Amino acid sequence: MLGSLLTATFVAATGYGVTFPHLATHLEASGVSGQLLGLNAAMPAAGWLLGSFSLPSLQARLSIGTILVTSLIVAIASWSGFFLFDDYGWWTALRFVFGGALGMFFRTIEFDLNATTPDHRRGRVFGYYNLAFGLGIALGAALEPQLGLDGVAPWASVVTGLLIAAVFASRRLRHADAVAERPSFAGWIDAARRAPLPLLAGFAYGFVEDIPAYLLSIYALRNGLGGDVAAYSLTAAALGSITLPLVLGILADRAGRRSVLLVSSVGAAIFAATVPFSLGSGVVFLVVVMVWTGFGSTLYTTALAMLGDEWRERGLSTANAAFGVTYASGGLTGPLVNGAAIDLLHSHGLMAAAAVVPALLSLAVFLFAE
Fold first, then answer.
1. Which is higher by pLDDT, 220 or 298?
2. Predicted confidence band at 177 (pLDDT cuts at 50, 70, 90)?
3. Same domain, 160 and 36
4. Rounded distance, CA 278 to CA 109, Å?
5. What is the C-alpha separation between 178 and 1, in angstroms, rounded?
6. Within this chain, do residues 119 and 213 fall inside the same structural domain, yes or no?
7. Do 118 and 3 belong together in one domain?
8. Residue 185 forms part of a structural domain
9. Choice between 235 and 345, residue whose per-residue pLDDT is larger
10. Is the same domain home to 366 and 268?
């Protein structure tokens, strides 16, 4: 079952990865303002936020497989809408639905992995999950320039990836959710009371996630590193985000999640703050970026594993949804703050924002120490 879920994650992420440069290129060519570009880019996080609130109710009524397959069907339908309507308003609404549907898909897989993975393997399993997701996104983004901007190829490539994911996800259609519960306000309060650190880590990762994806290349160009280093910065960030979480996930299974969360938050803060001092060398800059994004991505995978450790039975679906809410909240807040920060302090305000949030998280690890 693990292989099916990881394969579904990989192929769905590959399709998803195609959409990022495709939509950005089309919107840029349409001449819309930077503010409208930012609004459109925030729509997936808004969709995740709404979807996370609804997940516990859905899981109390439907099987895991039904939610997974339905989410992919909605994503396919909304993706098709991009090729039927050539209008910014429609594209923004469709991106809200498309991003929300895929957010539901990935949040549900994360829940299923948590519910079915033994405690002693949870860290490495989420490392494998992060590896599958990251490789899929990177492959999709690399394929997009070969597909072209027009015609059937971009549409078909995404649909194909999502359909293949649905085939693997359908293996869960007959498996009822053994730990789902009907949602309640008390359940949300309990999640915040029992697991503040994973929820805060989800927010912290969501806050900085857009930086390597959208803003890091701009930062490199503004600081004179050249177009080649700016392009390679995305590769360095991808390498860090898919390798270090797996290594630290295995360590977390042995040394404990809290210790790894502390190391990751401190490491993310230190290496983000080091980025401005690495600009004298393109190689050093890329190495620092790789380590920084590796620690940052480990915040996400470690937080998910901590949820599974805390809720082994009922309550996990609400806790997973609460994690989705805080992660999406960071995803909505971060682009607004980070976009403004890059215009401050000769662009170094961007890395200041990237360092402050994980630094505050590391402080919280001490404050909530057992």
1. 298
2. low
3. yes
4. 38
5. 15
6. no
7. yes
8. no
9. 235
10. yes
For the segment 341-359, what is each residue's pLDDT rounded down to a tens digit? 777 777 788 889 899 999 9
The verdict on residue 188 lying in a domain is no
Do residues 299 and 362 touch, judged by C-beta distance below 8 A?
no
pLDDT at 84: 85
pTM of the model as a whole = 0.86
Asked whether residue 68 carries a pLDDT value surpassing 70, the answer given is yes
> Both 209 and 149 in a single domain?
no
How many domains, the chain? 2
Distances (CA, A) of 325 to 45, 47, 330, 364: 9, 10, 9, 19
Q: Which of 86, 2, 83, 82 is nearest to 43 (CA)?
A: 82
Sign of the dihedral through C-alpha 159, 165, 169, 170: positive
DSSP H helices in 148-182:
153-169
Name the residue among 329, 322, 330, 332 with its Cα closest to residue 56: 322
Q: What is the pLDDT of residue 360?
A: 95
| pLDDT (0 to 100) of residue 185 | 61
Which letter, b or e, does each residue of 95-109 get, where b requires 16 or more Cβ atoms within 10 Å of its Cβ?
bbbbbbbbbbbbbbb
CATH code at position 150 = 1.20.1250.20
Question: Is the domain of 220 the same as that of 251?
Answer: yes
Domain carrying residue 43:
1-177
Q: Are 109 and 68 in contact (CB under 8 A)?
A: yes
Q: What is the pLDDT of residue 319?
A: 84
What pLDDT does residue 34 have? Answer: 58
Rounded Cα–Cα distance for residues 299 and 264 (Å): 6
| Residue 31 CA, distance from chain mean position | 28
Do residues 360 and 256 both lie within one domain? yes
pLDDT of 108-164, one tens digit each?
A: 999 888 888 888 888 899 999 999 998 988 888 778 777 776 778 888 999 999 999
Q: Based on the domain organization, do 107 and 247 belong to the same domain?
A: no
Give the HSE-up count for residue 125: Cα atoms under 13 Å, Cβ half-sphere. Answer: 22
Contact 238, 134 (CB under 8 A): yes
Residue 1 lies inside a defined structural domain of this protein: yes
